[in-house]
Amino acid sequence: MNRRLRPNTILKYVPVLLLFFLTPFGGTYAQGAPTGTPENASAKSYGSGWACNRGYREADGVCQAFEVPLNAYLNSFGDRWICGRGYQEKDDVCVAISVPLNAYLSDTSYRLGWECNHGYRAADDACVPVKVPLNGYFVASSYGLGWKCERGYRAAGELCVAVWMPENAHLDFSGNAWDCDRPYRKQVDKCILP
What we know:
The chain is mostly beta strands.
């Protein structure tokens, strides 16, 4: 059986639906400015009380203006400032980030504000070329030397040296160390039968 609502039945529920969708969830709207609202403040949009207007901060029950330095902007709440792209906070001002040669500004590098170009790595406040040794290969990484050794070699300072293996051994999963063949077991630097 197909049941359909008649048009006049639907109209009966419209006021209830409107009230449901127009009532805020989890609170009520403030009703006008509360008594004792300081200058440069407004009633909160939810609940009761007041909040300082954008560009002002609460201090001892009053809203005090604060200065936004050059190359900065107000955050989304308007209660503090943030330095713009290419600048970082230092002593309550925004100073330009010094980007070294062979680098670019980065939003992901919180430590420096810049990252090195491909083929370079950070060393102090500079980008130095990655020098890949014989039997090594370049890796794009924001830390380390910028290279790894090929399978069968291990890093020794700035070189890749062959992995030494005793008799009855093979390269392990990593490729830069060894494990004993079965049924042999590792004992110091040898593979012996159990």
